Amino acid sequence: MSTSTIHDIGYRHYEGRRSGRAYVLRSLYVHNLRAAFGLGRPARAKIMPFLVAALMLLPAIGSVAAFAVTDQEDALIRYASYANIMQVIVAIFLATQAPVLASREIRFHVIPLYFSRPVGHLDFVLAKAAALATALFALMAVPVTVLYIGGLVAKAPDSGEQLLRYLGALVGCVLYALVLSAIGMVVAAFTPRRGFGVAAVIAVFMLSTAFVGAVQGIAEANTNFTLQGWIGLGTPFNLVDIVQVRLLGARSSSPGIAPGVAGGVVALAECAVIVVGSVAVLYRRFRKAGLS
Amino acid sequence: MNATIAMITFRAMLGRRRALLLLGLPLVMLVLAVVLRATGNDDLDVSTEVLQKVALAALLPLLALIAGTGVIGPEIDDGQIMYVLTKPIPRQVVVLTKLAVAIVLVTAFAVVPTLLAGLVLTGTTAGLTPAFTVGVLVGGVAYSAVFVALAVMSRNAVTIGLLYALVWESLLGSFAPGAKQASIQQWAMSVTDKLTSASPVESTVSLPVAITLLVAVTVVGTFLAAFRLRSLTVASAE
Predict the structure, then answer these.
(1) What pLDDT does residue A77 have?
(2) Is residue A265 one of the residues assigned to a domain?
(3) B162–A196: do the CB atoms touch at under 8 Å?
(4) What are the record keywords, sorted (chain B) (predicted)?
(5) Cβ separation of B49 and A217 shorter than 8 Å?
(6) What pLDDT, in 10s, does the model give residues A63-96?
(7) Which of B25, B73, B167 sits opposite A194 (nearest CB)?
(8) Which residue of A has its CA nearest to B237?
(9) 3-state secondary structure labels for all residues of A249-275
(10) Distance from CA of B208 to the nearest CA of A (A)
(11) In terms of residue numbers, what domain contains A76?
(12) Would you call A211 and B32 a contact, using CB atoms and an 8 Å cutoff?
């Protein structure tokens, strides 16, 4: 047969300004951040994230109220401990929303549609991870801020000290958000079937907590506090808490804290490995999903 | 019971990586049990702690949630359930079959590993191992019925189940004693408590109440699932 050619049938070319990579990143980020709270989706997708966020806020409000009435400093939950105390709620939010961001598009095989446009693989992954991390940060930072402002209004002593602790807790929240979203996204990206992603993410958290908790309990009974501290690196919440205690000067709210500054540095390094590793794994995962 | 539906459901639950998820959970517990045994930390207190906190409070609700919602939830979501519902099979048979599959899965991946972990840890001392095995089994049946019903009724079944299992049973249970009365975990503990002479096992619910509630929850869950499936409206996927 004859050689085929593509004819120019006269469509007009686009010669205006291209919005560029930053615009792509921003659009993906905003879209995913909205999706993380179910905004722009039907009402039933909004129920769970907002219900969980409300649950997250309740103890903070209660604590501020108790502080205002009794005027005892113990009544105000420590800022840096809040995320750790409420870790079940945080884990449930992560488990329900990580699959929304990481597995829906894989499930419906629409990833190639993204990559048929000028969207880089890395940009795509970074925007998703950043969006989930931002959502988690908001989930944890809002109650902490409520605690801080409540404390200010109710006149907690040492306002300078309080501000310092509040800022330290915010840094901790950023770290929590990064580590948790990294783990949640990877697990969710590999379990695209509906419902399984949620269960898989929560399973990682519950089992690591149960396993580490059992070992810590036994180590404590044998007065082996070194093991009790180091094994804490095995669960995400305890891991970040080690960084908070050793490097940010918070008070411990976990059963075991690795000793010395070295413990904090090791924990911080592990956080970095988790985050970078997760981006690398997600990059490969989405690039492969984009080929089909 | 319908063998074909059971087959299809088993294949959906165990196909590809999903079996790994189901298998990985009990494996962690078994590894823990072996490590504890190897390091000599296998007295009655520790064994009770592991069997209660890991097997009954973490592994069982998780697996029952995965199995209970997994057998029917995804099919309803993507509309494949229509291919089953348009066959001349009574809806209650569909629900019973799915429930039976869920119970078999929970037995295989939670009850048997509990038995194995118990045997590794204590052998048959004080009847602890059989007691926990039976407790996990009756708890598993009740959990499965509840979660199958949830999956038929709501698209957020997994999250609601998580909130129940983690927030209601674990968190509120440790603050507000009243919440313990309405907790499948505590009812299962009550059965376990009756069957073992080991003193570290304590329950807060009396046995007759626990058994009545377990049976009631299972029956009501099954009926509710069958009833809701009769008038299921199938929407498009998301």
Answers:
(1) 87
(2) yes
(3) no
(4) Membrane, Transmembrane, Transmembrane helix
(5) yes
(6) 999 888 887 877 888 899 999 989 999 999 999 9
(7) B73
(8) A108
(9) CCCCCCCCCCCHHHHHHHHHHHHHHHH
(10) 30
(11) 20-289
(12) yes
Assign A223 to helix, strand or coil. Answer: coil
Q: Residues A48, B159: contact at Cβ < 8 Å?
A: yes
* pLDDT tens-digit series, residues B29-57: 898 889 888 887 777 888 888 888 888 88
Chain B contact present for A198, CB below 8 A: yes
Q: Cβ of B28 and A55 within 8 Å?
A: no
Residue A2 placed within a domain: no
Residue A28 CA, chain-centre distance (Å), reads: 17
* Pick from B43, B31, B24, B161: nearest CA to A212: B31
Q: Quick check: A92 contacting B, CB < 8 Å? A: yes
Q: Please state the domain count of chain A.
A: 1
Residue A226: inside a domain: yes
Whole-number pLDDT of residue A158: 80
Contacts of B179 (CB under 8 A, 6+ apart): B168, B169, B172, B173
Using a CB–CB cutoff of 8 Å, tell me whether A204 touches chain B. no
How far is residue A263's CA from residue A248's CA, in Å, rounded to a whole number? 12
Cα distance between residue B238 and residue B235, in whole Å: 8
Tell me the C-alpha distance between A57 and A40, whole Å: 23
Asked if residue A241 lies in contact with residue A257, where contact means CB atoms within 8 angstroms, the answer is yes
Report the C-alpha gap between A151 and A165 in whole angstroms: 12
Q: How many CB atoms lie within 10 A of CB A29?
A: 18
Test A88 with B166 for CB contact under 8 angstroms. Answer: yes
Report residue A221: phi and psi, to 5°.
-60, -35
For residue B85, pLDDT beyond 90: no
Tell the burial category of B188 from Cβ atoms under 10 Å away from its Cβ (0-12, 13-18, 19+). buried
Q: Is A225 on the interface with B (CB under 8 A)?
A: no
What is the value of pTM for the model shown?
0.89
Contact B50 A222 (CB under 8 A): no
Measured CA angle at B21 (ends A210, B7), to 5 deg: 135
CB contact under 8 A, A198 and B157: no
Cα angle A273, A100, A119 (rounded to 5 degrees) comes to 70
Residue of A204, A209, A218 to mutate, testing the B interface (most B Cβ within 10 Å of its Cβ): A218
* Residues ≥6 apart with Cβ < 8 Å to A141: A170, A173
CA distances from B192 to A187, B52, B135 (A): 34, 10, 5
pLDDT in tens, B116-152: 999 988 877 778 888 999 999 999 999 999 999 999 9
Contacts of B106 in chain A (CB under 8 A): none
pLDDT of residue B194: 86
Instruction: Give the three-class secondary structure for B176.
Output: coil
Contacts of A218 in chain B (CB under 8 A): 36, 41, 46
Average pLDDT across chain A, whole number: 89
Q: Which of B74, B76, B98, B54 is nearest to B221 (CA)?
A: B98
Chain A nearest-CA residue for B24: A203
